[in-house]
Structure formats: C-alpha cells, structure tokens
Amino acid sequence: MLTSNLADLFALMVFGHMLGDYPLQGAFLSRAKNRSDPLPGTPWYQALAAHAIIQGGIVGIITGSLVLALLETVIHALIDDAKCRNKIGFNLDQLLHILCKLLWIGLLVIWT
C-alpha cells in the first residue's frame, strides 16, 4: 500500500476513479462500451473491458494489490454494463463505484 493513511488512500482512489471515468475513458470508450447502442465495427465487450481494466489498474497502482485490481475490474465492468443497459442511472453508477473504493479499503484493513 502506497499510503498508511486511510483517508489519503480513499482520496487517491476517488481521484483515480474520476481520472479513469472521465479523461481516460473519453467519448470513444464511453459510447463503444454500450451494448445497447454499440459503435459499428467495435465489439462493445472489448471497449467495456478496456475501460474496466484501466479502472482496475488505477486501483492496483494505488493499493499495491493485484487482487483489488482484479476485483475493481470485474465490479466496474458489471456496474457500467448495468448503467449502459439502463438498469441503473448515472448517479447510482457513480455511488456504487465510490462505495467499492470504501470496500477495497475495508478489505485492505482486514488483510493487513
């Protein structure tokens, strides 16, 4: 873990999430990951995986945990896919992503 202060760790993960969900996702991945309205010639699942892997990589870099990186990748993809299929709205999507960061911190506390 790169920091021992849990508030700092949470802040870094929220910052990383915002970085990954906005500038690093961009318009292409944002649209291409949507199975309900895919870009022609772009497999939606590849775009969704690329975005989720970016998010997982950010968590892995910040926490130093490959397990948390993999968990973030899978959960992020599931949440975003639910949003793209109109099962949840934008605000719930963002809330769930932030709650995951709290869960990752909880798991780090338990594991260390």
Automatic annotation (TrEMBL):
Transmembrane intervals: 48-71, 92-111
InterPro entries the record matches: Phage_phiKZ_Orf197
Superkingdom of origin: Bacteria
A Pfam family per the record: DUF3307
Keyword terms: Membrane, Plasmid, Transmembrane, Transmembrane helix
Protein name: DUF3307 domain-containing protein
Originating organism: Paracoccus aminophilus JCM 7686
